[in-house]
């Protein structure tokens, strides 16, 4: 669990930051909040103090902080810069971005940001015309060059009643993304391709064969890879999930379409993670329109779908990493190992789809990570946490942490 600093700028979206602070604390982090004077007009320091159980910082002229033993810890903002491991500014206003981009330190928050050496994420929120203004866009470009990462804004309804590009991400999304970034930037510069969800194999206009995959596992992998700095493409079968933030998403229906999308991108990819539950077979015939109920009493003839992962294993070049899943009824390590060899994979994530709370649909999953080097047994974890454990383990694969290295 981490020591996090939440900077709050003066915008109406500051009310979301109260929820964000509370969410981060509930997830076990220590959260210290630093408000600009304008932010304190929207949400009081007492709100944050009550929600985090930690001191709240604000005025640049706050007296020095003292440790439990009476030791002087230094000026408030410098002390906070030493204390924090990562920082998120939400909302980051146009004024705040401008100050930071030009190295100004007029209040406690900007002073803290200049003094802070850890990773900083910025979640802007403002009127859409302010966001589009060249001065703001220049600040954004400059801050990106300095290494700051932006989360949003997104398009949506704004406080002014207008619709536009300037809305801050929701507290839940920011909490997830902030946590994803805590795992470091080990995938910076890597191109990661993820497959997720089921495929649907139709035999008439309204009927298909499929499976219960929700896409949660694959989407968690895509989001985790983005958090760790990768350029991520997600090829998704039909799901009800929203696109993960920062990820390029292509939605398909059939295995054949998923195969085409994966095959097209595979030569440029560093890591392929295949979490999709691809239908192994498809109906041989497709009937235009809807087959009448009385006519449905026929034997459905099937033919095999392409095995996407196996084909990519065949095409794999030196330095590319292939991670497949094995959905088994029970933890059948032998079957996972067979897949590892047959599909020329670097890792198989073996999961049990026989019970509730893991495998299909659940928010949690339990897995064995099977590689040529051995097996790592993981406990029941959230799918987000499991996604990070998979990428952690991928670092230990031959060539895993090193571009172009390996076999
Ligand atoms: O989506 P969720 O509800 O979160 O559920 C997650 C999950 C259970 C779907 C996921 O954790 C999982 O196990 N995904 C793989 C499901 C599967 O199809 O397993 P398999 O053992 O049949 O296939 C082995 C591997 O080959 C998989 O990586 C699969 O993507 C791939 N495959 C399979 C068939 C095929 N025609 N082409 C493939 O690429």
Bound molecules: ligand PMT
Q: Total strand count, please? A: 24
- The total tally of domains equals 2
- Number of helices in the DSSP assignment: 14
Helix content: 25-40%
Distance between the termini: 35 Å
Low-pLDDT sequence parts: 402-407
Sheet with most strands: strand arrangement? 15-14-11-16-19-20-22-23
Looking at the overall shape, the CATH architecture of the largest domain is: 3-Layer(aba) Sandwich
Instruction: State the CATH superfamily name of the largest domain.
Output: CoaB-like
Rg is 24 Å
Class of secondary structure makeup:
alpha/beta
CATH class assignment of the largest domain: Alpha Beta
> What proportion of the residues form beta strands (DSSP E)?
15-25%
Query: Biggest sheet, in brief?
Result: 8 strands, mixed
What fold name goes in the CATH topology slot of the largest domain?
Answer: Rossmann fold
CA-based shape: elongated
Please state the average pLDDT score: 94
């Amino acid at each position: 669990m981490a020591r996090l600093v939440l900077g709050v700028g003066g915008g109406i979206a500051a009310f979301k930051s109260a929820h964000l602070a509370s969410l981060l604390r509930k997830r076990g982090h220590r959260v210290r909040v630093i408000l600009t004077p304008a932010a304190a007009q929207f949400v009081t320091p007492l709100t944050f103090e009550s929600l985090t159980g930690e001191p709240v910082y604000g005025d640049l002229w706050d007296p020095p902080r003292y440790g439990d033993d009476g030791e002087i810890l230094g000026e408030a903002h410098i002390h906070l810069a030493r204390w924090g491991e990562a920082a998120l500014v939400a909302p980051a206003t146009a004024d705040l971005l401008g100050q930071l981009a030009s190295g100004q330190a007029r209040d406690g928050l900007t002073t803290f940001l200049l003094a802070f050496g850890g990773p900083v994420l910025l979640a802007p929120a403002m009127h859409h015309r302010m966001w589009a203004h060249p001065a703001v866009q220049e600040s954004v470009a400059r801050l990106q060059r300095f290494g700051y990462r932006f989360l949003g804004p997104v398009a949506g309804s704004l406080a002014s009643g207008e619709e536009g590009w300037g809305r801050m991400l929701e507290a839940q999304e920011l909490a997830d993304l902030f946590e994803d970034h805590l795992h470091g930037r080990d995938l910076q510069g890597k191109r990661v391709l993820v497959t997720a969800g089921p495929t649907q194999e139709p035999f008439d206009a309204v009927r298909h064969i499929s499976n219960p995959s929700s896409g949660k596992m694959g989407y968690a992998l895509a989001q985790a890879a983005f958090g760790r700095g990768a350029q991520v493409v997600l090829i998704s079968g039909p799901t009800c999930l929203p696109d993960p933030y920062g990820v390029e998403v292509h939605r398909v229906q059939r295995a054949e379409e998923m195969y085409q999308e994966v095959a097209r991108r595979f030569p440029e990819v560093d890591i392929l993670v295949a979490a999709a539950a691809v239908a192994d077979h498809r109906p041989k015939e497709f009937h235009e329109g809807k087959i009448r109920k009385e006519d449905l009493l026929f034997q459905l003839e099937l033919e095999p779908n392409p095995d996407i992962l196996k084909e990519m294993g065949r095409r794999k070049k030196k330095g590319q990493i292939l991670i497949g899943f094995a959905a088994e009824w029970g933890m059948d390590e032998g079957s996972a190992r067979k897949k590892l060899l047959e599909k020329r994979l670097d890792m198989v994530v073996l999961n049990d789809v026989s019970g509730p709370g893991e495998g299909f649909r659940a928010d949690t999953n339990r897995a064995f990570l099977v590689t040529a080097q051995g097996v790592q047994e993981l406990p029941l974890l959230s799918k987000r946490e499991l996604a990070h454990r998979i990428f952690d383990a991928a670092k230990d694969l031959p060539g895993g942490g090193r571009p172009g290295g390996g076999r």
